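explain this.
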Amino acid sequence: MLRQIAKEPLVHFVVLGGLLFAAWAWVAPPQTADSGNEVIIVDQARLDHLKTLWKAQWKRDPAPQDVAAIIDRHLRQELFYREALRMGLDHDDEIIRNRLAQKMEAVATDLSTLMEPPTEERLRAFYAEHPDLFTLPQSFAFRQVLYLPSEAEDNQLEVTLATLRSGGDVPSDRLRKLSVPLDWPLTPAQTLENSFGGGFADALSKLPLGAWSGPVRSGLGLHLVQVTERQPVRLKPFEEIRDLVARQYEYYSVLNAQERMFRELLDKYEVRISAEGVPEAVMQEYVRP
């Protein structure tokens, strides 16, 4: 009787399946977290892989602050991915992990819209709390005549300056020196510093209005300058930029909602980082003692 049962194909299938199941359980036992939470492990292999992807995109090795950003983004993606699976957002959807994480971020965005709609009161409060977003920087409008260091010999600048002060024209060979425009409309100080360098914008703040002055040194050379308008730093009135305030409010509301969701989800997981070269700030922020 036993011999007859042993010859049955179904018995062979059951026995073989049991052996395979036992072998798999031995080779890859299920992982458990001591704290009862799910575990996210960032080992050396994982970090090396993430750094390789980063290097392929940016064509250089990541600096410590880049490593911090890499790990932060990976943890955010992993958390949003797992929570998206928990909520069933992957049903009938064949797209990859990044898309699932984006869905969770979208959930946070929708929640921010529902919980904090851009009412007039909230927009004005946001405007008052973030004046730096709506403050116009110091700006200058001016005319300039450029001389290269090698051209600023003898008394050439003094002669040209005297001519300009007496109402004379800008010399024709100075009109587009190095393709730098002669006339500049109101331009923010930081933009001027980026264009000229050498503390040029700071020097303009000390010149009198309407009069030719100089020479003023920059990263390009020496300039004779006539400041025609100087606009101080000022906060634009709310009524003039209400639409801009609304756009900024929506943008920051989304960022804040996603950050809150990320931090709440992070409390449900245990993060283990065994890789080397991880900034200490990252370890302190994400790895609980």
Notes: Residues 242-266 form the longest helix (25 residues).
